[in-house]
Each structure stands twice: as C-alpha cells, then as structure tokens.
Amino acid sequence: MEMYTIIEAQQESVPHPDRGEVGDNYILVKFTCYKYIGGRPSPDCPIRWDSQIIEGEKQYWVDLPGIKNVTSPYRSICTRLIADYLSTTNVPEEEHPCIIDKLFEVLDVAVSPDLPIHVELFDVALHPSYLVPATRESIEGLERVRLDRLGVLEVGATCSICWLGYDDGQEQLVTRLPCSHYYHEDCIVQWLHINHFCPMCRFAMPTQPST
User: Which ranges does the record mark as transmembrane (predicted)?
Assistant: First the structure.
C-alpha cells in the first residue's frame, strides 16, 4: 500500500458571503480533509480512483493583524488550536508542522481579510490495481435499513460513492455493510461486483478463493 499526504493552501478570490458579527479585521481560515483511495499497477501508470470523500471540515475566524505578528501570544495560541484540530484528523502527525507552515505562508502575505484562506488536505492511499469482487452471496445478504433507524444520519449526508444525497426522506432504504457504512443500494452493489473493499474504510467483504 502506497500512502502519502498532499497539502494545498491558498487565499480564495471570492469573499465569504456572510461575516455575521465578526469584526472587519478577522479572516476566515477553512480546512477540508479528503480521503482518496485508488490503485495503479506501477508508479508510471495513471491512478484509478475507487473513492474520493470528504472526511471532515473545520472553520476558524482569526484576527489577521494579530496572527501575522510573529512574536504575539495570539499567533502561538492559534498555532496550538490548529495543531489540536489536526490531531483529530487522519493526517499523519509528522505532516502537521508542514501544514501549519504552509498556512502561515499564505496568512503572512494576505492583505484582505474579506477573502478566506482554504487549506485542503488529501490523505491518499494507493493499492495494486488488481481488483477482486465480493461474492454474490455476500452482496445479496447485505442488510437494508431505513435512514430513520440508523440514528447517525447528518443533515445533507451524501452517498460516498455517487456523492448524491439521500433525497427520499427518512424512510428511504439504504444498504449497510458489516462495517456499518451505508450507501445507495444500486451504488454499493455495482461497487462490490468490482471491488470487495468498503469505499470508506476498506473493510473486506468475502471473496471467492483463488483456484
């Protein structure tokens, strides 16, 4: 398994639509963590992505003049706050200093507090591209449950395969894997006919023994 992290940080070109009661000197810092799972037979070959999902998002309003002052206690406080957040993500700890450095590279040259700064973290896992489908019996035996009985559905939740929402209300049936991740039935059935791993956590469904 090949694993690495991609870090991107930049100031956006469009102002945030609603500052609310936040002071004019405050700038919005946004974090988005992605999980990409794919495969390729060798480093020279293109990647075939199996799953691309958003694992988490976080936003902070920070005082721009205060955080740009490299000797201020405020900058140190913000650094610790960001480090605490990163510790809750799946991004490897050794990458945290680099992420914070890239954020401050953008913050230190920012002029307008109206334009948010967006930090995107891509946690990438690549496996050999030889895919093995799940068994027909294991696919047919998957549990179908109503959304309102899951007790974990978030507002605006989407299927991690097609990225479309669950639009038919709380009574809609979804298909749940043994690992407890759930998807549109058509999406996960098609997926498992190609790849026996859960798109989100790589839980392994049963496969036919090799002959």
Answer: none
